[in-house]
Automatic annotation (TrEMBL):
This is T9SS type A sorting domain-containing protein. Residues 161-228 form the Secretion system C-terminal sorting domain. Residues 1-18 form the signal peptide. It comes from Mesonia profundi. Pfam families: Por_Secre_tail. It comes from the Bacteria. Keywords: Signal.
Amino acid sequence: MKIIIKLIICLLSFNSLAQIAPLEDHTWYLEKLVINGNDFPPPLVYQDNYTASFDNDYFIFGSPCSSVEGILTHNSTASFAINEGGSDFQICPGLTGVDAYDEKFAIDFIDIDDFLNPFSYTFATQPNYIVLTITNGNGDQAIYRNQQLAVASMEKVAVNLYPNPVTNHFQLEVESGKNIKSVRIFSVDGKEVLHFEEAQITYDVSYLPAGIYFVKIKSETGESVKKMLKR
């Protein structure tokens, strides 16, 4: 009888771990909040900076400015309750739209004062990614994917940016048949610093200060993001 009881306990423990393991297996990227039936996607430039990660009983909802993190308890029915949590609220005026969005997430979806427990979750498998939907006690949702969103909705285009590091100019080489439609350059804090509406033979970045930048290249069928070092 003792052996049977131990076996049942082990099976229950394994089932619980099987339910929460997918949460821990990925970094999740926020696609949108759904509050009172209305969609609220993150500010476009910073969408890949809104993340969720789980480490058994610890969670972090990341943001380019103010994260929310704390302690949770997993239930046996694909749900969890937040026991402790808080936010390192900051004012980030250089990140357009981020302060307001962080407040909406922390207050309207989490409610860091009272916590909108329980939070249930479901997974939906798509051809190239997994969708995680977390629903709070009010029925509002946070919808995530297990891949970055900047190129999730479009084909990822193979692009070669050279020379890199860049001094004054760079060139782009894309795979055959993929015509460049626009090129946007962002600083590391997500601010757009240059925007080319059409393909160029060379791209002039001579006036940009030295540093690290991200170049988002959009073609007729897809997008790619390249890291650029400006000397």
